[in-house]
Amino acid sequence: MQRVGFIGIGLMGKEMSRRLLEAGYPLTVWNRTKEKVDLLLKGGAQWKDSPQAVAQASDVVITMVTDSAASEEVICGTGGVLEGAHPGLMLIDMGSIAPEMSRAIAARAKTKKVPMLDAPVTGNPKVAADGKLGIMVGGPREIFDACLPLFETMGVKIIHVGEENGQGTTLKLINNLIMGIAIEAVAEALVLAAKAGIDPQKVIDITSVGGARTGAMETRGPRMIKHDFSPHFSVDNMYKDLSTALKLAEEVGVSLPATSISREMLRAVKSQGKGEMDSCIVMTAIETMANTVVAAKT
After folding, report:
1. What domain range includes position 238?
2. By CB distance 3.0 to 4.6 Å, which of 15, 22, 206, 245 could disulfide with 128?
3. What is the pTM assigned to this prediction?
């Protein structure tokens, strides 16, 4: 089996790397905070002191870090993956980064003769733990085919978007655009229901069937009613992705009015110091404007 290196053992990376380890792949890991990999090490993973060392010990290196700057640093920086390049090495960046950064990193990797795939995911840590992620992949088809067994260990919906790097990350932006707008719509609907005297739970119940059914209502609605804003996908991350989507839209000449509004609502809660909370906390800003509180009636 391919020797796999995994860099970035956060909420998602922890579960994704565990799936690979349990599937029998020889796994080498690195993370800024070593304590976060203790369970993987107990399960048989090997630790290296740098991304460079991980690359030297691997056939395929997967990076799953926070943003564009972090991906660039662990791949292209001092002691990064590309400094450990060797014949046959393949690189998969699974973080949610800007498409232009995916293309830039892939171009630098190419100078080291390292082919790269950009393969961001959709799903939360529980979905990752179950191996049911959606994975969107941009890059050479032959490299996608070579890495498909790895993707199949982590996901159930795997889409090769196209041969060009950056196409996977572009599709991820589009996916998150839909989610960001849907969360805003759910927040507005629940606040309107509460202000109009309707139990917000009834909104969740009726939208479980018919054309208004959304994943945002099903996954975030109950948490909104309970005011449980513990992070699954943070305000900061959603704001970043909607901002990148708007930048892309400007480049290609597309107007995204609903996306703009959704981003502004995220900006409002960011300015209140709530950037680390789940993005569904936008509901609290709408509650304040409506002078009401969403709560299920008992």
Report:
1. 170-290
2. 15
3. 0.91
In a shared domain, residues 13 and 104: yes
Q: Give the C-alpha separation, 183 to 196, whole Å.
A: 20
**pLDDT one-digit tens code per residue, 131-177:** 999 999 999 999 999 999 999 999 999 999 999 999 999 999 999 99
**Which residue out of 48, 172, 240, 274 is catalytically annotated?**
172
Q: How far apart are CA 73 and CA 194, in angstroms?
A: 46
H or E segment to which residue 18 belongs: helix 11-22
In Å, what is the CA distance from 47 to each residue of 18, 34, 72, 87, 89? 14, 9, 21, 22, 18
Instruction: Let me know if 48 is a catalytic residue.
Output: no
Query: What single-letter DSSP state applies at residue 95?
Result: S
Q: Please report the pLDDT score of residue 256 as a whole number.
A: 98
Is 298 domain-assigned?
no
In sequence order, the 6+-apart residues with CB closer than 8 A to the CB of 145 are none
CA dist 20 and 176 (Å) reads 25
The answer to whether residue 31 sits within a structural domain is yes
3-state secondary structure of 217: helix
Mean confidence (pLDDT) of the chain = 96
**Please, is 199 exposed, middle or buried when counting C-beta atoms within 10 Å of its C-beta (0-12, 13-18, 19+)?**
middle
Report the chain (298 residues): mean pLDDT per 10 consecutive residues: 95 96 98 94 97 98 94 97 98 94 97 98 93 98 98 98 97 96 98 97 96 94 96 91 93 97 98 97 98 90
pLDDT of residue 296: 87
Tokens of 123: 């799903």
